[in-house]
Design brief:
Strand order of the largest sheet: 1-7-6-4-5
Largest sheet: 5 strands, mixed
Subcellular location: Cytoplasm
InterPro entries: ACP_syn_III_C (IPR013747), ACP_syn_III_N (IPR013751), FabH (IPR004655), Thiolase-like (IPR016039)
Structural class: alpha+beta
EC number: 2.3.1.180
Mean pLDDT: 97
Organism: Brasilonema bromeliae SPC951
Radius of gyration: 19 Å
Pathway: Lipid metabolism; fatty acid biosynthesis
Number of strands: 15
Number of helices: 10
Shape: globular
Length: about 325
């Protein structure tokens, strides 16, 4: 019988060694440790050096996940990289493939900002459920420090760099129990890392746009309102599809954007604090990396055990949001 279910069998993570705490941030912008902590829950963030790349962080996280799953890079059929900050606009997944020596794997990037990991998990599952691929590596990695305006205290206090990875394998029993994905492009202007073009005259009749991406801009109030309203809703829908009730969840694993969002979502769903996974105090918002980074940490600390039911939700730019209910291990 063909294995058309999925199991998540390994996890890994990697962060840069350099960290910037709130106290040091006060030297860059007018803010305070107390202001940042009470509003976000973030105490420090890891930042990649100019010489460090998304590909390196992603490859380091991937090696750990592959080792935990007990397979080799040559066993991989597919590599999905969820990122909004690739080293190369043509994509960075193929560089990961080369660094790992995963010669059989097809590799490509997915861009869905802070929802990227959840969107990637669902994408990986479709390839496995249709019998096309057996072993998929899903990586969430971002180095958003490249794109932060370090004079804008509304955004520079939030973001950090990192990578997290999981190995997803074909399995007789399906451990992706339910999911729901959503997008709303009408609210796109709430959170952007936008390209700005300068007209460049080639000939008298022809001009093209040349330029660069501008630093991250965010309407914090709107994003907060969106997350607190939409995330409980999408988790409810995914739980309904999984035929589970909220009290059957072992862990709530949200995109690590802001502790106030985590608290508000848990409160709205009546999920007790001890079931909420949070590590944003140490890493800040690492975008597509945040869910797999927090997952890997909890697995390696022995908090998340085989068979535990995890309700995960990512939300962010696009606007995009989604939830996936899965059991850890197999």
């Amino acid at each position: 019988m063909q294995n058309l279910g999925i199991a998540i069998t390994g996890s890994g993570s990697a962060v840069p060694a350099t960290f910037l705490d709130n106290h040091t941030l006060t030297e860059l912008v007018e803010t305070s440790d107390e202001w940042i902590t009470t509003r976000t829950g973030i105490r420090q963030r890891r930042l990649a050096k100019a010489s460090e790349t998304v590909t390196e962080l992603a490859s380091a996280a991937s090696r750990q996940a592959i080792a935990m799953a007990g397979i080799s890079p040559q066993d991989l059929d597919l590599i999905l990289l969820a990122t909004s900050s690739p080293d190369d606009l043509f994509g960075s997944a193929c560089q990961i493939q080369a660094q790992l020596g995963a010669t059989k794997a097809v590799a490509f990037d997915i861009t869905a900002a802070c929802s990227g990991f959840v969107f990637g998990l669902v994408t990986a599952a479709q390839y496995i459920r249709t019998g096309v691929y057996q072993n998929v590596l899903l990586v969430g990695a971002d180095v958003l420090s490249r794109w932060v305006d370090w004079q804008d205290r509304g955004t520079c206090v939030l973001f950090g760099d990192g990578a997290g990875a999981v190995v997803i394998q074909a399995n007789q029993k399906d451990y992706l129990l339910g999911f729901e994905l959503r997008s709303d492009g009408t609210q796109n202007n709430c959170l952007n890392l936008a390209y700005a073009a300068e007209p460049t005259q080639l000939t008298q009749e022809v001009n093209v746009g040349k330029g660069n991406f501008q630093p991250i801009t965010m309407n914090g109030k709107e994003v907060y309102r969106f997350a607190v309203q939409k995330v409980p809703e999408v988790l409810d829908k995914a739980l309904f599809r999984a035929n589970l009730s909220v009290d059957q969840i072992d862990w709530l694993l949200l995109h690590q954007a802001n502790q106030r969002i985590l608290d508000a979502v848990a409160q709205r769903l009546n999920i007790p604090e001890h079931k909420v996974i949070s590590n944003l105090a140490n890493y800040g918002n690492t975008s597509a990396a945040s869910i797999p980074l927090a997952l890997d940490e909890a697995v390696r600390q022995g908090k998340i055990k085989t068979g535990d039911i995890i309700a995960a939700s990512g939300f962010g730019a696009g606007l995009t949001w989604g939830a996936a209910i899965f059991q850890w291990g197999r």
